[in-house]
Amino acid sequence: MRIGGFQALSLLDFPTVPCSIIFTQGCPLRCQYCHNPDLVLPKKIQANISIDFEDIFSYVSSHSSMIQGVCITGGEPTLQRDLEEKIRRLRDAGFVIKLDTNGCSPRILEKLIGDSLLDYVAMDIKAPWGRYDLVSPGISPFIIDACHESFDILQSSGVSHEFRTTIFPAVHTIDDFVTMASGLIDGTLYCLQDIRYETTLASLEPVYTLKADAIAGLLCERFPSLIIQVR
Asked: Is the peptide bond before 75 cis (omega within 30 degrees of 0)?
């Protein structure tokens, strides 16, 4: 597993669970607003030293009285060939597992869920399916279809999960969020977060015409059966 970062403790990333966070390297998407370019761009990845999983495993094991879970994020974790193996080791050691994913690997997601290896999944929805290329220019239609399939798998999985969207005012419209919310089943948690312009994969001119609080208010009125949160 190629690991580009590690956060020893988070009280926010895994609902109700004090966790450590593993940041994996590599991603097939090139979302313009991505705030982790060091984990996505090949040249930046090659310039960074990968962190040894064994060091992380030793740390979390020795702090298990405080750390109850591990969140594996990225980049895109499902690109890691040994992801299942590492998750099994962590679960055998008593940790609960949260996976952050963009959904590009539905077969891997399906297997991890089928083998009861995931306790919580957070999946990004970048835009309505027909507008993904506006957020991630050059994205393959096959990857969009894969993300859509993962979306369907997760909604029918029975595993605790959430969907989330970063608001990209240069591309998104209000109708986009209505479209995305309309595809969610009753009781789903849908999280909105404002774009962070400090460090982005593309050079972006700040635009603030859409804000998470306003969109959340609208969606709460239109979709009372959903759980809408601002992060």
From this structure: yes
Q: Mind listing the pLDDT tens digit for each residue in 83-116? A: 999 999 999 999 999 999 999 999 999 999 999 9
**Rounded to whole angstroms, how far apart are CA atoms 171 and 118?**
33
**C-beta of residue 47 within 8 angstroms of C-beta of residue 37:** no
What total number of domains does the chain contain?
Answer: 1
Two tokens, residue 15: 């609902």
168 contacts 174 by C-beta, under 8 angstroms: no
d(CA 153, CA 112): 11
Between CA 45 and CA 170 the distance in angstroms is 27
For residues 41 and 66, the answer to whether their CB atoms sit within 8 Å is no
Structural domain span for residue 147: 3-166
d(CA 121, CA 154): 8
**CATH number of residue 91's parent domain:** 3.20.20.70
pTM, entire model: 0.95
